[in-house]
């Protein structure tokens, strides 16, 4: 068997905070415990927010923490052709279709479809797509694409589940090595976006593609991504790639009980470094003395 392979996969759209440090250190601990490899992936599919200075800062923070990775980092921005090929393959099989709706239009259509009832939502809280564009004729789609109308690509969930009916599930593991099977329910994501308007992928399609390409056997990430795993195992089945084992660790919370986030201005590792905090002190604070 090949060595267990882990990955830490941050997005360079802000400075790393304590939550990132915890996840990176846990990946490193488990990789060392099981004589495995630890890879670094830079998830920079967002061209508007992924800045070169933040990529460099990310590397500085990880070096300061004392982390070392096996081999060069994988940059998602360098693999758009691979994501495009996987997207095109799904579309050719009738498993993905272009959607020309804006977010506002999706919300309005979902509300109209719900009538007086509550709007159905996906696990991230977004309105479930009511299928406005899924029944467009081939001619209508071709014309709108020829006019370069902005569009995303959505997974045709009913066709996807007919192609890979399951039952779906994944293997969850604990840091002590205990494993169990967890049932997955991809249908709760509905016809979710698998490619953005500006790039031929989404987080979901890219992460499944990358995990397969890098030979990832163990995914260690925050509990906020637990529900996404339901969708990922379906995409893995559709693309014909294996599923890693998963561990979703508890999130670090701020004083108000909210998860740490760049968008909320959570204290960054750079802030702590500027205060003179030593890396060994921070590692001990996070339980990695």
Features:
289 residues, alpha/beta, Rossmann fold, 3-stranded parallel sheet, 3-stranded antiparallel sheet, 37% helix, globular
Total number of beta strands: 10
CATH topology tier name of the domain at 1-77 and 268-289: Rossmann fold
CATH class of the domain at 1-77 and 268-289: Alpha Beta
Q: Tell me the quaternary state.
A: single chain
Whole-Å distance between the termini? 31 Å
Beta-strand content estimate: 5-15%
Give the radius of gyration. Answer: 20 Å
- Main sheet attributes: strand count, strand direction, barrel closure: 3 strands, parallel
Shape annotation: globular
* SS content category: alpha/beta
- Helix percentage: 25-40%
Flag low-confidence runs. Answer: none
Q: Spell out the helices and strands N to C.
A: EHEHEHEHHEHEEEHEHEHH
GO molecular function: ligase activity
Domain Glutamyl/glutaminyl-tRNA synthetase class Ib catalytic: 7-284
Keywords: Aminoacyl-tRNA synthetase, ATP-binding, Ligase, Metal-binding, Nucleotide-binding, Protein biosynthesis, Zinc
Protein name: tRNA glutamyl-Q(34) synthetase GluQRS
